Each structure stands twice: as C-alpha cells, then as structure tokens.
Amino acid sequence: MPLSSESIPARDIRDRLIIGLDLPSVEEARAVVKRIGDAGTFYKIGYQLGYAGGLSFAEELIAEGKKIFLDLKLHDIGNTVEEGVRSVARLGATFLTVHAYPQTMRAAVAGKAGSKLKILAVTVLTSYDDKDLVEAGYAPVPAAELVAKRAAQARDIGIDGIVCAATEAASVRAIVGPERFIVTPGIRPAGSEAGDQKRVVTPGDAIRNGATHLVVARPIVKAADPRAAAEAIVNEIASVQS
After folding, report:
1. From what superkingdom does this record's organism come (predicted)?
2. Of 183, 181, 148, nearest in space to 165 by CA
C-alpha cells in the first residue's frame, strides 16, 4: 500500500511536498526559502539554480536540516554517471534523478552504493506527450506505454523510485510495487495555469494515484504568499487517504 497520511508524522507529511526552486539566483532562492519558513522541509534544485551556485546552496540547506532533491537528470557513459553520482552522494542530498536508460540506471546504482542517496529514474518528461515522442524519433508509442516499460526496467535494476506524471502514478505503482518512491512533477493546484506541462493533476489526485512525493514549483515560488501556498498543498496532502 502507498503511504497513509493517518500514520505519517507532521514533519513527514511536509516532506511529501518538494518545493521546486526554479529560480535564477541563489539570492532569490534564499529569500523564497526564508519566506516559506518551516512550512517547507524539502527543496528541489535543478539546472537553472544548480548552474548558478545552487550546489553550494544545497549544502547550506542540508546543514539547516532541509532535504534536497537534485534534479540533474544524469545521462552519460556509465563511468561518468557512476562517478557523478558518487560525488552527489557526498553532498548529503536525499534524491537525485537520472534518465531511465538501463546503462545509466545501473551506473547510478553502483555510484550511490554505501550512501543514503536515493536514485530516481525519469521515465518520460511531463512536458512530453505522444506527439513529442514521435518528433524525438521514437516509433509511435503512447507515452504511458514507454513509462511502463522504463518503470519495469528501473524496478529490475534496483532504482529507488520513479519520476513520472501523476496521471501515470497508479499504473507505475502497480509495476514497481509498494516500497518504491513515486515522485510526480507537473502538479498544479486547482485554478493554476498548466504552463509548459502537458500531463498535470491536482495535489490530491496525485496522492490518490499513489504518488509519495509531489514537486511543485511555480504555484509556490511565484505566489504572492509562498508560505500560504505551501501550507495549502500540505493540508491537501494530509486530508487525502493514500
């Protein structure tokens, strides 16, 4: 069974919301984190902030007791991925993403050995739909079918969790079993704009579908009151029976 909000401590319920610091500078990110305060316990740092001093900021947040998801989507030759993952593990991050190609996933599992780092495999980006996959050179195949295939490969290789659209979380859960993480970006509270995401759902629906963690960026960091926006999503998570 997926996690049940009835049995999860308040801190852990907050941990299920990962706030995406999709911002251009550490100064802006630090200001947002300060405004959110203890309403936020888990933060995602991706390319935009990562290449602007975000890795050092990640260490700063970890030292303050926050959890960090480094959304780096590694994909390279096996040795490069393995050594990169080994370096990330030393930072103390909680999650790290790699693309769900078998060779890449095997290298990532080897690189994180002996650490607490959890590897998440990105199946199909939530900004992709079936048409985008065809344009990228894949034979005509529904995105959901490719997600399922990659989720099964990740399970067999020993990856800790899957990143997928919340619309596919239930089917992925059936494939990977009850113990693995399912992290869903593309979450939009009711009334929010979808932006460049094409496969989106609300926080409550994502949890009902079997997600363990929700990634929310713009609806929080661009909100007039980021703390209140984060609190509203945490409250919705807590109200849903997973």
Report:
1. Bacteria
2. 183
